[in-house]
Fold this sequence. Notes:
Distance between the termini: 32 Å
Structural class: alpha+beta
CATH superfamily: Nucleic acid-binding proteins
Helix content: 10-25%
Amino acid sequence: MTVLRQVLPGVAMAGLLALAGSAASDPADSNLAFPDAAIWDRLGSTQVVSDLKTGAYHATHPASVTSLVGRPFKISGFLLPLETGQRTTHFIITRYPGSCPFCDPDNPNQVVEVFTTKPVRNLEVEVTVTGMFSLQNNESAGLFFRLDKADPS
Length: 153
């Protein structure tokens, strides 16, 4: 089973639970700071196609994304841990929080796999990390972007 197939249902469930608990709330009333849209839009320009036979995703990266490879890269988003415990060094960062009932689920071109040099607290708040950007094209997991040696800000 792929990482996204394991993670995204949990994100959707968290969103449904939040929706059930706050159906009357307005997203404008939230004190949640959404990440800088420009960098997420740039990553989102990667075209992703799903192969229905194999269940794998295939990505075509534009020059605006491939030009980031091997360079320091800073991004803010919401942490989805891939390890258990209060602190994590391996997680996925997403554009929208998993608990946002008003947000669409993140697409494969809207998530970045992150490996940090220091553990990050596993909280439902926006995090910012800076690391070396690479394309990993892990089609079976649906992960296309990666930050290595990332430092939390």
